[in-house]
Design goal:
- There is one protein chain.
- The chain is mostly helical.
- It is built from five helices and no strands.
Length: 162
């Protein structure tokens, strides 16, 4: 695999992972505030309670597909969601591009970014939910970290390629 192909694959992976974390971050913020379980198979509209389809949960894209409104009750969706998802996408891809020769650095920057933002949503009444949220993002970032480490070792034979 050429260096450029490897770069493109990881660039796309970083963008998808980043925007997915952005979407999940919005969900976690909401569920920590409302003291709701963080892990659930149902994703619902907070206004009408209708279960959302997978098509309505694609970060950034769904907001435009739905023209900024719930498909079922037509309640406007806050632009906070697509903006947060886009900000995560930009942050994750940029840090990857800048530090791609030092995967440990961009992986730590990703992790501390989301942890820092989550801690800012602190709500002492729902501390247990917040700790659950931190635990979940730790698991996700550990999984992606191991995946990147394996790919770097397979392609470059090192975690610190020249
Ligand atoms: Zn709705």
């Amino acid at each position: 695999m050429s260096d450029y192909t490897f770069f493109l694959i990881l660039l796309i992976t970083s963008a998808v992972f980043g925007t997915t974390m952005g979407a999940y971050f919005c969900t976690m913020q909401y569920r920590i505030r409302e003291n709701l379980p963080l892990v659930t198979s149902d994703c619902i509209c907070p206004a009408c309670g209708h279960r959302l389809l997978l098509l309505h949960q694609i970060p950034v894209i769904s907001f435009f597909l739905l023209k900024g409104k719930c498909r079922f009750c037509h309640t406007p969706i806050s632009p906070h969601y697509p903006l947060t998802e886009a900000a995560f996408l930009v942050y994750y891809t940029f840090t990857y591009c800048i530090f791609r020769r030092y995967p440990v650095i961009f992986l730590l920057l990703w992790y501390f970014f989301i942890v820092g933002l989550l801690i800012r949503t602190k709500n002492s009444r729902h501390l247990r939910r917040l700790l659950n949220g931190l635990w979940i993002v730790t698991i996700y970032h550990t999984i992606i970290g191991v995946l990147y480490a394996v790919l770097y070792l397979a392609v470059y034979g090192s975690l610190f390629p020249k």
